[in-house]
Design goal:
Helix content: 25-40%
Shape: globular
Strand order of the largest sheet: 6-5-8-3-2-12-15-14
CATH superfamily of the largest domain: tricorn interacting facor f3 domain
CATH topology of the largest domain: Immunoglobulin-like
Strand content: 25-35%
Largest sheet: 8 strands, mixed
Length: about 1000
Amino acid sequence: MMRLCALVLLFALPCAAHGLPHSERDLPEYTLQVAIDIQTSSIKGIATIPVAKGRELRFHRGRLNLVQASIAGREIAISGRGEEVRILPGQDGMLVIRYEGVLRESSCNGQCSDVIGDKGVFLTGTWYPKPDRMCLYHLIATLPEGFEAVSEAETIEKSARDHRCTFSFEFPHPLDGITLIASDRYRTAKERLGNVEIFAYFFSEDADLIGTYLGHAKQYLKRYDALISAYPYRRFSIVENSLPVGYSMPTYTVLGQAVVRLPFIPETSLGHEILHQWFGNSVYVDYAGGNWAEGLTSFLADHLYEEEKGRGKEYRKGLLIDFASYVNDKNDFPLKAFTTRTDYPSEAIGYGKALMVFQMLEDLLGPERFYESIRYFAADMRFKNASWDDLKRAFERYYGRDLAFFFGQWIDGKGLPDFRLEEVKVRPSGADFEVAFSIRQEGKAYSLDLPAMIYSRAGKTSRLLHLSREKERFAIVLGELPERIALDEEYRVARKLSVDEIPPVVARLLGDEKRIVVLPPTKPEIYDDIVAHFRAKGDRVSEPKGVGFEDLKTHSLVILGADNPIVGSLYGGEADVSNGFTLSIREMPWNRWKVAGIFDGRSKEEVGAAFGKVFHYGKFSQLRFDHGTNVYKSVDDKVQGISRELYKEAAAVDVSALRTLREVMQRVADKKIIYVGESHDLFSHHAMELEIVKDLVRRGRKIAIGMEMFQRPFQGAVDAYIEGGIDEKAFLKGTEYFKRWGFDYGLYRPILVFAKSLKIPVVALNQRREIVDKVFRGGLDSLSEEEKRSMPSGMDFSDEGYRKRLAKAFREHAGSRTENFDFFYQAQVLWDETMSESISQFLRTHPDYQMVVLAGNGHLEYGSGIPGRTARRTPYDYAVILNDADMEKGAADFVLFPDTIVGSPSPRLMVLFKEGAGRAEVTGFPEQSVSQAAGMKVGDVILAIGEAPVQNVDDVKLELTTKKKGDRVRVRVLRKDFVGIPRQMDLNVVLE
């Protein structure tokens, strides 16, 4: 099997064959009868296989004890050392091997391919005498009562007797090995798609995922039935497992529990696993000629899904970034030599480069002939060992030409082409313009077609440039003055990236073979884990003063501490950091092919909690962790393609038109409605909102504040607070703020306190969250009649520009809440229309008021969300002010760019809860929890904070709004003593 590291999620296929030619009629039938004892982690079995006199048979026995081998009842000798054993039959007949073994997880040295224990049965390696040839397997397995079992099988028959279950597995096709998975924790379900039965074996605690997985499995099977051919088997199973692994075998896939629970798996990786049923599990891999299946499966699954979401270019560029980061002259090898992923370089070649080869084949043949070739290959090589040569033959059949040149340079050779755009000139050509340029290939010259795009004010012109020599000259005539040329900006060619294209990312630092670790000026013990890791890799460790100029030109740097003096020497000052752990990757100024990684942590614990996770974020430039949890990640933008500016139209800014906020208010103060957009989590935006409100108050305006953050059914609680009838805690509880909005109340508190001080009306604008969520999931038609009565009086879906912008956003975030764009669009319009109606209703009943509307930028941009809809209802004059938005024509009347302002977030107990039955129970603590330090324990039930009783998590948050960071509070908890008697006790906690 090829292992999937669960958190990295590199889904793989089984080793279906080892290059052994076969005919199903010539293959031996291998019968296995096994009995498994869970309590002792043991297996006993009888293996039966036909043998011929004088023909030696070799087996691998792993951790098994081969008790006896016999033919026709006569015991024969077993020879060989270590895992491999040999048997030389003295006669024709049936060889019977009796064997046994103990397969505990604790004894497998971390290589848990065979485990029997409390977590179940996981047998994917050498759990039976494994012959060195392909066989037709028949498996009969006996397990304790209550177990369910899965193996490679077209049919599974189960019988029960004497508190034992016996499973018989029949698979009529050749295999080079067989597996067995079983558990007594499974909840099972089945659906049918045509003549295919689809099974789910999930643990009871994850049974709610079964419907999702079965539904997606049906869609993938339909998809690949149509794209390739009919599903090759009558049965497919999705099997959950406790171990942190993932495998794909003929007729089923095994996913670790940690993998199954990841929300994106059924929408992405499950499709990859199902596609392996065609490529790898029915068309076998001839490993002697290279593993082609990972690249093809990734191309037709992972990449295809991203391509359909409009992110194919980014996906392909990411593969080329990985290749540039991890592959060098020392570790590179041809695709025909790839068998399985063993490290980052082999993954970049066997998965990434191979995927790009299939992209280029599709572009060369065209989609129609490409898929005809794939369909022919899948049918012609079913249950056979297939090589790259077999793929070549299939593609040549439909291409109609010899592809030896293509496979020779991409499969047999190593490396990637390296292009240079040179001698670029723009000159008049009559009334037109000619763009002349050269493309030079560094090193080996490849024969290929390179896409080129030339941009002008009139649009863009595409060309396909054929290259076959070290240097080629081209000239393209255009009717408009060209502004820019870009080569392969869609990343459809497997090639080396130029330095202008490849961003500084974590992968570049991890993949560099020449690194220096620069020690921090203070508290070096904080970074002990990082130093130990890179020292073990052979990296040099140095004080800052030991890093010379030549080092800066030839090495990437691991810089420890944002205050490290080498940061100042390279980048002019300390790196920007925040509490927790940060990593910032930057280009080295003296060699742009090298990078510096600036690591900064506030404590050894923070570094320890986060550093090991950095390796899973290879494509990012900036990372931030808080107590080991990633809270921020970004990648520095780079140009797309090998690009050159040809002519840049002069830009002009009317400096006299620049305005301050004070001047903006002079322009908008008379507007009936002033919309102010925000990013919900930035205090500086809320500070601008408060300044706008205060400015209008100073002008003597009679204003109200409309807030997206509160929902209409809770207007009474809002009014009571503003009028002084209830206090702040009652207000937050009455509006269910923490359940329905969730952003730190400290961001909005200054606005509400000011409104309360002057009794400025605050209008709850938003729709009930339950309604919007239901529409996201099932559309407006899913609402009950009672729910529909809460809908606004009119809903306009005709704004095509708005729809297109939302469709783009939907594609970029598909799968997060709904798979149906129509439902997404309906919910968005419902959201906007409800807020618009709330504004209109207030102003109609309070015609002497102005209103300042506070909402997210997305609800206000271009007037498509709330403003235009309110104008339809009540044609009042309005202005739109956005904070930190793009300066695009028509997006707003004004855009503010406030300086960063740090607010006062609500203090924290640093406790994880579960709630129910009127109680808040402690389930855990983040790192460095102040409550844990004060003596709180998992299982404690919080009864009160100070004198305030606590029944749920909201009560905790409510009480904390009256506190400040650093306050000492008394927390009363209920705890069972050592004999189980509940007792109350008080703890003193200093709030974080």
